[in-house]
Amino acid sequence: MADSWQKQLKKALNGQNTTALQNHHNYSEAAADMFKAVVTEEVIRSLENNPNSEALASQFLPIKAETTHHPDFKLDPVGDHDALANQGIIHKYYGRVLVIASGSCAVNCRYCFRRHFPYQQQLGSRQKWQSLIAYLKQHPEIHEVILSGGDPLTLSTNHLRRLTDQLLTLESITTLRIHSRIPTVLPDRIDDELLTWLSQLPLHKVLVTHINHRLEITPAAAIALEKLSKTGVTLLNQSVLLKAINDDVDVLSDLSHSLFNHGILPYYLHLLDRVQNAAHFEVELATAQEIYKELQARLPGYLLPKMVQEIAGQASKTPVNLQVDI
Ligand SMILES: *Cc1c(COP(=O)(O)O)cnc(C)c1O
Ligand code: SF4
Hints:
Layout: H1 5-13, H2 19-22, H3 29-34, H4 41-49, H5 54-57, E1 89-90, E2 96-100, H6 125-138, E3 144-148, H7 157-167, E4 175-180, H8 182-185, H9 192-200, E5 204-210, H10 219-230, E6 234-240, H11 249-261, E7 265-270, H12 285-298, E8 306-309, E9 318-319
Parallel strand pairs: 2-3, 3-4, 4-5, 5-6, 6-7, 7-8
Antiparallel strand pairs: 1-2, 8-9
The site of iron/sulfur cluster (SF4) has 10 residues, from loops.
């Protein structure tokens, strides 16, 4: 029998699945020392099953380019570290609040804008949820709670249920949104217990997956997504535009169609946040706009993600196609 999802997660976090990465000719120990290599068995399986999996591998493979310092790439490109003062609560946009739900993810994406986030300085969860509830009481205009990375689905279902039990006591909260990479990288996590909790939860439920390439939707991931879709969760996807991974109109168009086949609508296509050690993933703005223009000509409107970038201090994500200059 396969390991439980908890055991699979533990193995990933302990770095037990990295042999395949370490054997890769581009693997850099120095890069892994800066940000640990973490992958799940599901990702490794997918790498092994797909001969052309470089687009997948390079999302998780520590390489030497990460060790090159680039002055325009910062430790905290979007100004999230201040959130620590507020116990993991990031309230930047009207009507919704984002919570750093967990201290870890099931994979470490090399381009992650939170790769330098000092998760260990966070408070224990009991204290965190208490302050969240107190915060929401002071801000009745907030109707949506967004659980974001560290991946919220690394938490146990009981833990999530304890949180939503408290949210349900607040009339102002109508929507729970979960941002997670887990449905594709650790599909066994989408178990009956989780599905029962979601299906019984009397809130609007939105799950935003994070998929950058069609290859990430493995057969097991497809089953997990179908189950989620059947529980009445609205499924959306966000991707990051990444050099040599999905900076290509065919790849992005395939991705949109593939998402739709699995009940997911494309939501955002993010320009890379300029986080230190990830400069080699950046796609030039002019190139991004060119690709996007072609993509727009290819896809029905409902399969075209909004291309956006996060600019610190703005009231929302900023649409890239409307910008003339950065
Ligand atoms: C991206 C983000 C959100 C969600 O924005 P939507 O446009 O609603 O998807 C909310 N809060 C913070 C702090 C964010 O960075
Ligand atoms: S799953 Fe999301 S939050 Fe976690 S490392 Fe990847 S990009 Fe970052």
